């Protein structure tokens, strides 16, 4: 029996009027991680044929924009762009539709054309998801959310770390609607960071203030960084340990000679 004949989600999508079985993956991701909320502006990258656009519209009810190299058949209440997400022209078109403030959520269920060579297909997947992340970084509002499909493999951890470096909360998640034999998973990033520091960055600073908890507090490009185990007047090299939307934490790496 053909795979589609045995596929519960395939027939459920047919019965419920969704363009693809992938619709249920987004429903399940959102149920788990609450990525899309009512009224959110959502941009779907690599959106054809439109299954995730239909779900995004249902979950949000707000402005929904789909982008793909292929033309997307019309969906009521959804705007579409035929364009390349790596192109500045496409980025400008997205902003024309969502407004200068940007999008609340960027989603991407795109997959590369598969060759059957696993190493090559994994590399193509990472390249595509990296392009989606770079696009998301340009169009997301501060605090916005991101979901992208990625194939697991030896480059997956590096990609996950890159997402983690740009969002307060990062998880990988495989929804039940993913086929059991598939190597796909989804990376979820919540609360997009626009801070001038990132985890692992190092700076030489002088402690000139203590916070209410007794930790040192320094400003880096106007952004507050808290440092443990220091006193006012200490000159130290610090390493950023964790970044939140409005402040960061750092550890002392070494003392700095005056």
Topology, element by element:
Elements: H1 3-6, H2 8-16, H3 23-33, E1 42-45, H4 51-60, E2 64-68, E3 78-82, H5 88-98, E4 103-108, H6 118-139, E5 140-151, H7 156-164, E6 167-173, E7 184-192, E8 202-206, E9 216-220, E10 223-227, E11 235-243, E12 247-255
Parallel strand pairs: 1-2, 1-4, 2-3, 4-5, 10-12
Antiparallel strand pairs: 5-7, 6-7, 8-11, 9-10, 11-12
Helix pairs in contact: 3-4
Subcellular location: Cytoplasm
Binding site for S-adenosyl-L-methionine: 50, 52, 68, 84, 109
Main location: cytoplasm
Explain what this protein looks like in three dimensions.
It is an enzyme of class 2 (transferase). It is found in: Cytoplasm. Residues 196-254 form the TRAM domain. Keywords: Cytoplasm, Methyltransferase, rRNA processing, S-adenosyl-L-methionine, Transferase. A seven-stranded mixed β-sheet has the order 3-2-1-4-5-7-6, with helices on both faces. Strands 8-11-12-10-9 form a five-stranded mixed β-sheet, with no helix packed on it. It is 29% helix and 31% strand. The longest helix is centred in the middle third of the chain and has 22 residues, at 118-139. It has helices at 3-6, 8-16, 23-33, 51-60, 88-98, 118-139, 156-164; strands spanning 42-45, 64-68, 78-82, 103-108, 140-151, 167-173, 184-192, 202-206, 216-220, 223-227, 235-243, 247-255. The model has no long low-confidence stretch (mean pLDDT 90). The chain folds into two domains: 3-192, 3-Layer(aba) Sandwich (Rossmann fold); 202-255, OB fold (Dihydrolipoamide Acetyltransferase, E2P), CATH 2.40.50. It has seven helices and twelve strands. With 258 residues, it is α/β, with parallel strands linked by helices.
